[in-house]
Amino acid sequence: QLAGTQLEGMLDAVRNRAKEVNAEVAKIVGEIGELQRRAANIRAGLDGAGAQAQARRERGLTDGERDDLNTERARNALAEASRYATFAQNAAIDGRAEKAQEYARQAAELIERAAAAANAIGDDEAAANLLDQVAEAQARELEAQAAMKQKQATEIAQRSQEQAEALAELEARLAKLAEGTTVAVKPDTTAAEQALAAVQTAVDAIPTEKTVTVRTIYVSDTRNGAGGGSYSAGDLAGELQREALRAGRRQ
Fold it and tell me: What is the SS3 assignment for 38?
């Protein structure tokens, strides 16, 4: 089993790698969006060779024709900006934050395009009227972005709370796992107890008193016939020595 610190290290590595992958994906998606935007602007005559071609066509226009063309461009850009602003709001409601930001960015670019076209109109009154419409579109677009940011902040706070709860649960599991890996050491004293019991039994078998057997030796005097006569101390000592020798041979 892995220790708690090892599990935490593995989890941190997985989280960090997931963040790196998400960042890489977001970067690629952003680059794709920028390339698509530039391609659209070139085709619309707003950038690159497309803008140069459009400028050449407008050289022969009268001031009135040029004003009409710029008025049409401004209105078309405003209408397109309003459409993308609606897309952004719907995406935000559905929780598609990346799409909402992409639509909002496109709406902002269209509004800037409308402002440039309106500002190019020679008739000041007509230009001012269109610029008022552009200003209102810009204000709504900024308010929509602020609302989306607020929604994102709320979602981030909620996710942060959920992550905190998940982390607390994970820490509790790791604590339980650490407790489960603790080894309880209990020595086996059975053999020692049996040996001590055997020693005690042997000690108990030792007698508390020692019995000494005394043999009584009856000696007859054959020197004086059938059992009569006296028996001296020297005779007794000699007889005891002989008996001790006999006892030693028997052992």
Answer: helix
Number of C-beta neighbours around residue 88 at 10 A: 26
Contact criterion met (CB below 8 Å) for 72 and 118: no
Burial (CB count within 10 angstroms: exposed 0-12, middle 13-18, buried 19+), residue 144: buried
The pLDDT of residue 115 is above 50: yes
Residue 76 and residue 134 in contact, taking contact as beta carbons nearer than 8 Å: no
Point out the least confidently predicted range of 4-18, 98-112, 172-186, 200-214: 200-214
Longest dimension (CA), the chain: 188
- Do residues 97 and 152 lie in contact, with contact meaning Cβ atoms separated by under 8 Å? yes
Helices 63-93, 97-119: axis angle to 10 degrees equals 160
User: How far is the C-alpha of 193 from the C-alpha of 209, rounded, in Å?
Assistant: 29
